[in-house]
Every structure is written in structure tokens, then in C-alpha cells.
Amino acid sequence: MAVGQAKDRIVPLTVELSRRSGTSRAWRRFKANRMAVIAGAFIILLCLMAIFADTIAPHDPLEIYSGKRGIAPSIEHPMGFDHVGRDLFSRVIYGARVALIVGLGASSIAVVIGVMLGVTAGYFGGWPDTLLSRLTDTLMAFPIIALLILMAALLGPSLATTVVVIGVTGWAVYARVVRVEVLSLKEQEFVVAARAIGTSDRRIMFRQILPNVLTSVIVLATLGVGTIIILEAALSFLGMGIQPPTPSWGGTLSHGRAFILLFPHISIAPGIMIMLTVLAFNLLGDGLRDALDPRQKDIT
Q1: Domain residue spans in the chain?
Q2: Confidence of residue 194 (pLDDT cuts 50, 70, 90)
Q3: Which residues lie closer than 8 Å to 7 by C-beta, 6 or more apart?
Q4: Considering 4, 60, 106, 157, which has the largest number of Cβ atoms within 10 A of its Cβ?
């Protein structure tokens, strides 16, 4: 009896040590990628800026200063004023909150939908798999910006609509990747053994298979946030996204377009922030992909 109890303790301990060892190796690989570390630090600072925008922003982003229309940057107003006389620095800070809400919110919706459909179709096969494949192909072939504009026009442009619209139209790539991995995993020995002992399909799908595809999902989601931020900026630029006077980088770009020759700083500031944020998420995604890939060699 004592020997059996000892074995029961040893097996979970071995699994836990192996898991910790894998996490440690992944962390070492990630730290070795300096650009990914810098990108992660930038994203953390961006998140803090968005969370504490009310404290950090030196001025009210909606306040209009009389006679300050299009005034160039100064020490007191580092980014100058926009086309109606609002402090551009404060609006860029608050715009980070909108960008992250849309980027992370829409990405979460897309991940949940894509993973659920991909796991279900890949595991059961048959008509669910065929239906998902045809739906995914159709959605990925359709011009995404045109679909977003159509749905935004039908539902009415707003922050909530932007998050939902981008989220429910962006799940196809997650579903396709998860489906392919599930098709491979469901034939593995640990899944066959789970079926043999009578484990339910639901438990196999979400307790045995799903954890093994999360690495790919995390990397895809990180890379996808940058794309979603660009889509939000494009929608706001076209007037179908975040509506004024709510500060958003895409909306500020749109407003500055008409004054690009007179007041170029109006478009430069949000344009640089969009570029840096998208670049940071892409670099972080590349770093996570390299760190979580078991085929990568350890950094000594």
C-alpha cells in the first residue's frame, strides 16, 4: 500500500517538474530575444498609460481651447493641438485606451469563437468539419474591411459595435489552425487511451486536447492584436468606427487628413503610435513563437 501511494506521489511530481522545466526553458529563450523583451515592456507601459489615462493626461481630451486650432507642439503641449483646439497629447493617451480595448476585446471574442469551432470540427469530423471548412474559406476570401464596414453600417458605429464586429469576423484563422492541430492530436496515444477508459468526448476535447493547442493560439492572438488595432483605425478613419468626440487614433488621423499640409502634427502623432503599437505586438508574437516552440534550442 505504501509503495502504491509513493508511486501516486511520484507521477504528479514528475509531471510538475517537467512542466516547470519547460516553462523555465521557454522563459530563457524569450529573454534572449531583446526585441521581444523591449516590445513587451512597451506594451506594458502602453497598458499602464491606458489604465491610468485619467491621471497621466495633463488636460481634458474633450476641452476646446479658444484660438489654439492647429497650434504646433510646445513644452506645455508636447504634441500641439488638433483641428478644433483640443490638446493632442491628452487625446493620444486616451486613444491608447480605445485601441487596447478594441484590440484585446475583439481578439478575445475571435479566439473564443475560433477555438470552440476548431476543436469541435477537428475532433468530430464529418459534417461539422465540412461546414466549418466551407464557412472559414468563405470568410477568409471575403474582403474583411468591406465586411466590417457593412456590419458597422447595419449595427451603427460605436466602441461596443467595433469590438463585436471585428471579433465575430476575425475567428476564421484561429479555427483553421486549431482544427488542423486537433486532427493530428486526436490520433495520439493519450487520446486513444482516454477513449479506451471511457472518458467523455467533452473532457477529452477540453482537458486533453485543448491545452496542447493553446501555444499556437497564444502566438496567433498576440500577432492578431496588431492587425485588429489597424482595422479599428481604418474603421475610425472611414467614420464607421469610434465616433467623435471620443479620442481614437484612427479618428484623429481622419481629422488630420484635411489639414495635412497646414497642421501635419495632427496626423503624425497618432500615426506613430499606431505604428509603434502594431510593431510591438508583432515583435512580441515573434518572441513568444520562438520561446514556446519546443524545437528551439535552449539558450545557455
Answers
A1: 61-286
A2: confident
A3: none
A4: 106
Closest C-alpha to 72, from 268, 263, 269: 263
Q: Is 87 helix (H, G, I), strand (E, B) or coil?
A: strand
Share of the chain above pLDDT 70, in %: 90
Task: Give the CA distances from residue 180 to residues 173, 176, 186, 299, in Å, rounded to whole numbers and listed in that order.
Answer: 11, 6, 10, 30
Query: Does the pLDDT of residue 289 top 80, yes or no?
Result: yes
Q: What is the Cα 20 distance to its own chain's centre?
A: 26
Assigned CATH for 61-286 = 1.10.3720.10
Give bridge partners of residue 43 from the DSSP assignment: none
Q: What percent of the chain has pLDDT over 90?
A: 37
Strand partners, 80: none
φ/ψ of 246, rounded to 5, equals: -60, 130
> Cell triple for residue 202?
467533452
CB-based contacts of 217: which residues, under 8 Å, 6+ apart?
Answer: 111, 115, 174, 177, 178
Average of per-residue pLDDT values in the chain: 85
Per-residue model confidence (pLDDT) at position 159: 86
Residue reference for cell 509513493 = 6
Q: What share of the chain is helix, strand, coil (3-state, %, to 5)?
A: 75, 0, 25
